[in-house]
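Notes to self, Glycosyltransferase involved in cell wall biosynthesis:
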Amino acid sequence: MAATGPVLFVLGSSAGGVGRHVAALCRRLRAEGVDVRVAAPADTLRRFAFGVPATPVEIGPTVDPVRDLGAARALRRAAAAVPGVLVHAHGVRAGFVAALALPRRTPLVVTLHNAVLGRGARARLGLAVLARVCRRADVVLGVSGDLVAQAHRLGAGVVDRALVPAPALAPGDAARGRAVLGEGPVALAVARLAPQKGLGTLLEAAGRSGVRVAVAGDGPLHDELAARVRAGDLPVQLLGRRDDVADLLAATDVALSASVWEGQPVFVQEALRAGVPLVATDAGGTREVTGDAALLVPVGDATALAEALARLVADPVERGVRAERSRQRAAQLPTEDDLLEQVRRVHAAARG
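result:
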């Protein structure tokens, strides 16, 4: 396909999924001859190999008028240096800075990767910022059906569901995975140790079910979770950040997600592709990813999560049925080619 006009991707601080998603887009569009650039905080630019010209723009995690105006000025300069550029912002914060920075003639696409959670003044401010982004963007993409519906309610003109395929994992080695997980029945969760991931519910479910759970990932809640594991003598192993998730998936009996909210969760997609039986909370877009492959339970319901987990671990026949459903569902998940086709179409629509 012939190259389109230049594209500037904008994102805030990222430690995982959003950064990997943008890096994949940069790689694929660059391979087609598109002039691709990235603007992001310096720590994000160091963390990911975007492989394209990059401009540091310090977009913070929360609204800060002084910092946001400074970021908007930096982004305005970066966009002005590329005639005919389309800006594609990832996340509400990046979208807000882009809305502040760009003249109306500059086409703007915004992908919403996360919901505004919580209550009170902070949540109201978050919704006001989101509404501003939705009204300014030429096209809004939401990673889950609830985000798409919310964007419509807040005044977005053109809205679609984003495609966010997980990066492909190489086949795992079960023996190497078992060397980490140990022998005997075990469930695996891969998650950033942060409030959105519902890890308090996971710990409670592990305690109630008696099923051993290994959690791969790091984050700000590590010390708190480790203290709870010790205090409750819970059957939970905190593995820290891992680069052998494929091996762990090859060795585990069940994959587990207890999130409060998700869009198109990477670990859930990885578990489906690995043919692993899955227990998850019915959070955000999780059901849209799993279809009927997973055992889904209400968000925050530790009793239901424990019962589903214990049921799968105790029943090898059902695990086999669920594993086959995982493989079948994985074959229906979007690919990078699907993502690229959507982005081409959306960028063309935004340019008019």
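- Residues 193 and 219 are 4 Å apart (CA to CA).
- The first helix runs from residue 17 to 31.
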